[in-house]
Amino acid sequence: MAENLLEIRNVSKIFRIGGMLSRKKLTAIDDVSLTITNERPVILSIVGESGCGKSTLCKMILRVHKPDMGEIYLNGKRYSDKRAYDPLQFRLDVQPIFQNPYESFSARKTVDTYLFNTALRLGICKTRKEAEERIDEVLKSVGLSLSVVKGKYPTQFSGGELQRVSIARALITRPKLIVADEPVAAIDASMKMNIVNLFKELKDKYNVSFIYITHDLSTAYYVSDYIATLYRGCLIEYGPAKEIMDDPAHPYTELLMNAIPRVGDKWDESMVMPDLEEKEYSLTCCKFAARCPYATDRCRQSRPSETQLPHARKVLCFKAEP
After folding, report:
1. Is the entire prediction scored with pTM above 0.70?
2. Cα–Cα distance between 243 and 2 in angstroms, integer?
3. How many CA atoms lie within 13 A of 82 on its CB side?
4. What is the mean pLDDT of residues 229-233?
5. Please, are residues 285 and 304 in contact by the beta-carbon 8 Å criterion?
6. What band does 257 get if pLDDT is binned at 50, 70 and 90?
7. Which of 211, 238, 235, 219 lies closest to 227, judged by CA?
8. Which residue in 178, 175, 113 sits closest to 146, CA to CA?
C-alpha cells in the first residue's frame, strides 16, 4: 500500500483574466503542499474566505483543473502521468459532493435513477438486485432508504435530504477520498450539523477520508481532524484542528477565530478589502501584511518561509519563527 493517499507537492494554478490588451495573471493557488496518509481515514478541512483558492484546489484534486506547477499524487501515482491514469479507477476512488444538491440532479429524472446509474454503469454491481442492496445500504447509512427515495424527483426532497442522497451516491463506489466543496452552504442552518455529523460517522464506517471545503469555521472546528487555512492562494497555516483553532499561530487564523462566534456565521464583509484584493495575489512579500496588526518592514519586503511547529503544525509567518 502506498504511504500517502493524497499528496499535493508545491502546486500552483495561474489564471489569465481580462481582455487581450489588459490581460493579467492571477495566481489562484501559490505553491501549496498537503498530504493525507493511508494510515487512517481523516477529515481535512480547507478553510478561508471567498476568493482564497479553496474551490480551485478542490477542482485540481478532482482533475477538473491541471496544476501549472507542482504535482498531485493519488496512492503514489502522479496526476500528470497519463500512462498511469485509469479514469474508471479514479471515479471509484475519488468522489465529489457539491455545494447545491439541486444542481446535482435534473428535475426531470427521479433521484434513484442517478443511484442505479452509478452502481451499474461503473460496474460496481452486476445485476439490478445487487444494485438495490448496495443503494439501500448506503441510503440507510445517511438516514434514508431506497423505499423512501424510489420514484421521487429532486423537488420532493428538502435541501438537507437531497444532500444526504448526494452523500449516499458518493459512497456507492466505496471511495477512498470524498471531496466535499461547501456541502452545507446551501442548506438550512438547522441541518448543517446533521450533515457534518454524517461525515464523522461515515469516515470510520466506510474507511473514507474527506476533504471538507468550507468558509464556516465553526463546523470545520467540530468535524475536522486537520485544518488548512488558505489566504490569497497561499497555505498559511496547517495542523490538527484543535491545536489551530484553540491557539492559532498565524494572525489571519487568529482574526478568523474572532470573527466566527457560532455555527453558521460567516466572515463579516468588512474584513474584505476589494481595493487591495487583486494586488495581494501578486505580492512577492507576505500577502497578509497590509491587513496584519503585527506586520513589520520585513513582512512588507519579503515572504516568510514555512516554519515547522510541534504536533505536525506548519505556518507561513515571521512571527512564528523561533
Report:
1. yes
2. 28
3. 1
4. 92
5. no
6. confident
7. 238
8. 113
